[in-house]
């Protein structure tokens, strides 16, 4: 079975389980007149709905790329997670207003032993469902499954509190329905906000995890002709599809044939080992000559006075045109990038008046 049919299978198990819980809890909740149990049932109904959205999201995300959407539909999964978060938030706010009402106007409740049995069964079922869904979500790296799993875990706690409220009522005759309902709804709202922020952040596009970017750069640099790997970018189109680019530094005497073979090899490695469709850009390096070597060293020295400059790369001296080009990776926090660039080129020009310096400011895309 492939990833998407596995996600669908897990989601269907979730939907059926939740609908059974909804029917049972709704029945005992209405018979006993417990707003906490009814809220709990509504909350489970929102889970069934959110699982349904997970299925729809995964199905749509699995669509083949086409002319209009050549990067595929993978990002739909993030949008599905946003929808789930909205449903959870709605359930949370509904629960909050109803509990507030019960807090202000407490009513008589009639718990039976059936109420207690069904609520207890509900807690256990939710607990095991949560662990199962979350584990499967991690296995298939599905944001929406993990989100559903976390939500089911919170729900087990919510059900547990309804049991506690019933026990306190039966033993001590204290009605905590309203308070419990209010607290429950705050937890629901909190988990909704968290899922919302997380999936939105994924849609906006996040920095590559430091560990991953360093691993990719190290692997590229492990090829003997590669003198350095820079400017690594990575765009995610859903959890399964990544498109990226990297700039490598090679000796300027390499032929087109050699560069062709090298960049092909890098693209193959990127795809087979990291699942990335990688474009490779080339910087030539010619720091073997005395002048170039000295000039590069002095530039490095100069740049080291600027803590906002994180990296210097792509240094190249064209002796025929007397042009020098290099890139500076400058910290996002720096708000005077142009000034830094002008200062550095000014100092270099003073040292080497015969040369012209062209500096590109790079964004700090990855570690
Ligand atoms: Zn660069």
What's the short version?
This protein folds into three domains: 3-204, Cation efflux protein transmembrane domain (Alpha-lytic protease prodomain-like), CATH 1.20.1510; 207-285, Alpha-Beta Plaits; 286-367, Alpha-Beta Plaits (2-Layer Sandwich), CATH 3.30.70. It contains ten helices and six strands. The chain has helices at 3-32, 35-61, 76-104, 113-139, 143-172, 177-204, 210-221, 256-274, 290-303, 337-351; strands spanning 228-236, 242-251, 276-285, 309-318, 323-330, 356-363.
Question: Can you tell me about this structure?
Answer:
With 367 residues, the protein is α/β, with parallel strands linked by helices. It has three domains: 3-204, Alpha-lytic protease prodomain-like (Up-down Bundle); 207-285, Alpha-Beta Plaits; 286-367, 2-Layer Sandwich (Alpha-Beta Plaits). 63% of the residues lie in helices and 15% in strands. It contains ten helices and six strands; from the N terminus they run H-H-H-H-H-H-H-E-E-H-E-H-E-E-H-E. The chain has helices at residues 3-32, 35-61, 76-104, 113-139, 143-172, 177-204, 210-221, 256-274, 290-303, 337-351, and strands spanning 228-236, 242-251, 276-285, 309-318, 323-330, 356-363. The strands form two sheets. Strands 1-2-3 form a three-stranded mixed sheet, with helices on one face. Strands 4-5-6 form a three-stranded mixed sheet, covered by helices on one side. Bound molecules: zinc ion. The site of zinc ion has 7 residues, from strand 1 and strand 4.
């Amino acid at each position: 079975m492939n990833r998407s049919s596995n996600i669908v299978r897990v989601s269907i198990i979730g939907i059926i389980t939740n609908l059974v819980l909804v029917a049972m809890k709704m029945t005992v909740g209405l018979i006993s007149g417990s707003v906490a149990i009814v809220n709990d049932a509504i909350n489970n109904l929102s889970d069934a709905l959110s699982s349904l959205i997970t299925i729809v999201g995964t199905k749509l995300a699995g669509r083949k790329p086409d002319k209009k959407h050549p990067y595929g539909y993978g990002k739909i999964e993030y949008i599905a997670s946003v929808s789930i978060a909205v449903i959870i938030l709605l359930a949370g706010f509904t629960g909050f207003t109803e509990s507030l009402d019960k807090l202000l106007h407490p009513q008589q409740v009639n718990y039976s032993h059936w109420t207690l049995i069904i609520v207890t069964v509900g807690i256990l079922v939710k607990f095991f469902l949560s662990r199962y869904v979350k584990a499967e979500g991690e296995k298939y790296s599905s944001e929406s499954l993990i989100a559903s799993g976390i939500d089911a875990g919170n729900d087990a706690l919510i059900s547990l509190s309804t049991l506690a409220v019933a026990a306190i009522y039966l033993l001590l005759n204290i009605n905590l329905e309203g308070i419990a309902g209010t607290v429950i709804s705050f937890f629901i709202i909190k988990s909704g906000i968290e899922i919302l922020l997380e999936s939105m952040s994924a849609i906006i596009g996040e920095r590559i995890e430091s560990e991953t970017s360093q691993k990719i750069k190290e692997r590229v640099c492990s090829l003997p002709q590669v003198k350095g790997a820079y400017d690594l970018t990575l765009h995610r189109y859903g959890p399964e599809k990544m498109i990226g680019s990297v700039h490598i530094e090679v000796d300027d005497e390499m032929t087109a044939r050699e560069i062709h073979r090298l960049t092909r090899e890098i693209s193959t490695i990127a795809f087979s080992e990291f699942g990335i469709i990688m474009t490779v850009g080339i910087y030539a390096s010619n720091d073997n000559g005395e002048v170039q070597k000295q000039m590069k060293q002095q530039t490095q020295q100069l740049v080291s006075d600027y803590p906002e400059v994180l990296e210097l790369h792509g240094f190249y001296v064209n002796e025929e045109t007397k042009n020098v080009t290099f890139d500076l990776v400058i910290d996002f926090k720096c708000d005077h990038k142009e000034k830094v660039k002008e200062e550095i080129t000014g100092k270099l020009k003073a040292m080497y008046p015969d040369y012209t310096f062209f500096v590109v400011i790079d964004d700090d895309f990855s570690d």
